[in-house]
Amino acid sequence: MTFEFEEEWTRAKGEAAMRLASAGPSPAPTPQPGPTPSPGKPDLGLVDGPVHSKASGICTANSEAQGKSTLDDAEAVGRSHSGWVAGPASNDCVGAWQRRLRELADLVDDAADALTTGANGITAEDQAIADRLRAAGGVLEDV
Questions:
Q1: Quick check: helix, strand or coil at residue 34?
Q2: 87-141 vs 49-68: helix crossing angle, rounded to 10
Q3: Eight-state DSSP code of residue 39
Q4: What DSSP designation does 41 have?
């Protein structure tokens, strides 16, 4: 048995036409009022508050942590313990760690800024598209 698409398609269309003819006329849909255009910016359903809140929280936490992230002076510890000779080397190590942690903190700040910028860009683009659609729809309303 071979399957011929055209034959099957013709048969299916014929059956659908017979079902529609036997069903009778369908009732007209009840007109529903459309949304009333708002004079200001419409609500596009865009929820960017959580993104801005998270980015702001990241910046705040990072800023607070910068003031608290100090490591004790290793030489001061060495002075209080006789025979401690690793103080200067420890200070160098601690200083390097602090510089690296601050660099990472700066990266976190940059990421939070980029997140905010990206969210603003997406929201602005969606708003611009909505404005263009509304303008195009205004042409249709005048017909």
A1: coil
A2: 160
A3: S
A4: -
123-136 pLDDT per residue, tens: 889 888 888 888 88
Q: What is the pLDDT of residue 15?
A: 85
- Determine the pLDDT at residue 39: 54
Torsion region of 25: left, alpha or beta (phi above 0 gives left; psi -120 to 50 gives alpha):
beta
CA 2 from centroid of its chain's CA atoms: 52
Q: What is the pLDDT of residues 40-89, one digit of tens each?
A: 666 667 777 787 788 888 888 877 777 665 656 566 666 676 666 776 77
Residue 117 pLDDT > 80:
yes
Amino acid at 122: I
pTM above 0.85, yes or no: no
Residues in the chain: 143
Tell me, what DSSP letter sits at residue 14?
A: H
Tokens read off for 105: 């903190």
Instruction: Give the DSSP letter of residue 40.
Output: S
Give the DSSP letter string of 44-107.
Answer: -----HHHHHHHHHHHHHHHHHHHH-----HHHHHHHSTT---HHHHHHHHHHHHHHHHHHHHH
